[in-house]
Design goal:
The complex is a heterodimer of chains A (429) and B (274). Chain A has 429 residues and is α/β, with parallel strands linked by helices. Chain A has helices spanning 15-20, 25-35, 65-76, 92-103, 114-128, 134-153, 163-172, 190-201, 214-224, 257-266, 298-335, 339-361, 367-395, 402-415, 424-428, and strands at residues 4-9, 40-47, 51-58, 87-90, 182-186, 206-210, 227-228, 243-246, 272-276, 293-297. Chain A has three domains: 4-156, Glutamyl-tRNA reductase, N-terminal domain (Beta Polymerase, domain 2, 2-Layer Sandwich); 163-304, NAD(P)-binding Rossmann-like Domain (Rossmann fold, 3-Layer(aba) Sandwich); 333-428, no CATH class. In chain A, the strands form two sheets. A six-stranded parallel beta sheet of chain A has the order 7-6-5-8-9-10. A four-stranded antiparallel beta sheet of chain A has the order 2-3-1-4, with helices on both faces. Chain B has two domains: 1-120; 121-274, no CATH class. Classes of the chains: A alpha/beta (429), B mainly alpha (274). The interface between A and B is medium-sized, with 20 and 16 residues.
Amino acid sequence: MNLSAISINHRSAPVELREALHLSEEEIAELIAKIKGNIFSEGLVISTCNRTEVYGFPSDQKLLAPDIQKILVDHKSVKNISAENFQTFHSFSAVEHLFRVATGIDSLLIGDNQIFRQVKDSFRLAEDLSFTGVLSKRIFDAAIRTGKRAISETEISEGAVTVSYAAVQLIEKIFSNLNKKSALVIGVGETGEIAARHLLDRGIGKLSITNRTLERAEKLASSLNAKVIPFGSFKDYVHDFDIIISATSAPELILTRQDIEDAMKQRNYASMILMDIAVPRDIDPASKIIDYVFYHDIDSLNIIVDRNLAKRRDEIPKVEKIIREELDSLMNWYNSLEAGPTIKSLRDYFEGIRAEEVEKNKNRFSGEDQEKLDIITKRIINKILHHPTVELKKLSGEGHSDDEIAARISILREIFGMDKPGSEEDKKD
Amino acid sequence: MKGLIDFLNILLPVLYVTTFIFYYVDFMKGGKVIANSKRLLLFLTLIFHLFYLLFRTIYFEHPPITNVFEIFTVLAFAIGFSYFILELVTDISGTGLFIIIISILFQIVSSFFIQDQIAVKDVLKSNLLGVHVFSALLGYSAITISAVYGFLYLILYKEIKLNKFGLIFNRLPSLEVLELLSFYSAVIGFILLTFAIIIGIIWLPKAFPDFSLIDPKLIGTSLVWILYGTGITSKIFGKWRGKKVVTLSIIGFVLAIASTMITNFLAQSFHSFY
């Protein structure tokens, strides 16, 4: 299989270079328009925050990996990048790499199931831009199936593996239904914003935001449909909240143990969760000894993250087994697309139909005629198959590439349903 | 039929222990196959147990509520059955092993000591007594479940406070759910025990005209009733919550079991039937 792939990812390049080669959907479309036909007959471009990858069946057999790298680098006008910053794959190793990407085991965050959605979106875009063909469609379908199987048959995507998601997982171990709970997010930096969005995704009842710079709090609050509390007076409302997530860059504590004790008295000791994901910490850790106060800082959340990552790492062999199965299945299919085996399959397919019909109807004929029936029907089948057989034998001698031959044979097999379960070939097996 | 009853008497502890092992494996390792098998196994165990109780009732010509070991096997069934319904309704299955172990204890004690008692004291041949025992047993199974969930609440509360995120953290439902399950079970138990007490008060003077108001059973039962009543009222009016309420539920359960044990084995009480 003449599939080529290049990849720039967290293993091969620092974040600056990965960022520089990141492609938006529009840029992917532009790149595909540039390479479709003259560089690759069919293929795929994937770009996420951690990787940019180009897969394709080269139109020119002499095309090398550095040529593909140059096309990508030129497309983004990136400098100071070398061949060492790319991984290159060829033939079935390219397919295997795609499967590893789709299952999330090649991700920086093992088992990240966002990558599965991103790979699917990339397939859809390639299809929309008519950049797919018989072979690539088959490979992409197999990759999607492999990704789905990894998610459903293993625990590769289970458990929180980011601090902000671990905070939400912990909150859900204390409160069963977030619809009736209120939360305050202190600080609207990246961590605070992600935590606020996680809470919204989990259906938090009321969300409030406070930040030293009011404008930034208002901006985030409007996008999340949350309430803004001025930073100067937020302490007066602490008792109103079941959950407080703090992620500021304040150098000193912003909530003392006394603040929390006062709030708990006002709440009549209804449970309160304090998630302090700031470094240095925002909330006095001594608050944890107050009854019904669940105080957790970044260290305790990291315990959950590390545990879940270890569990995911343990699942990698199971995912690799699925990848091997799917890869074997794809290789078997590809190997069946050679002229010799296809001629045999085609003949077996027609002979199967002939023999079945003769068996069904032979009683309508006398003993002598039954023999004639057999000879005549065999002759008909031979005549029908004569031309396709000659054409198939000629295919390999006409200078077509293996992938072109495979694509044509694949269409033939599809027309006669030779790869479907229950086909004559399967019946023989 | 006697042979079948004896066989089931031995089989039931085995079935409960096997079910417990399935629940244990599911708790430790998880997996769809084991999760489905454990529920089926509990269902089959309860079916066998139901037949055992029916066969006893038919063969010995009285329901198995006339001595403490008969009551223990009914209690084992009632706890297992209540949990089974709870698991079906709430789909919370990570707590099963903690409740089934109580059924195992009651069933093992019952299987060891139960006797083939055909003759029943005249005082026990009363419809009112049947209603009393039936509601009391259901009430006890409810407070047992309440105590187990209360106990699990305390463990999970401590684990979260101490940043221990192991199996208990992963498998148990949220603290809020555990508190609710414990509280609702306590309310159901309290209502059923109240009903059992009312029936008992009606039946007692008829059966034992010379009963004493300082009988250990009456004192024990009153204490349990006051304890649950106080806890439930405080929770409803928002005065108590969480740890306090579940601790009360656990104390109530221990007191109820201790009261039953003392009145049946140690003290002289109208309630000693064994």
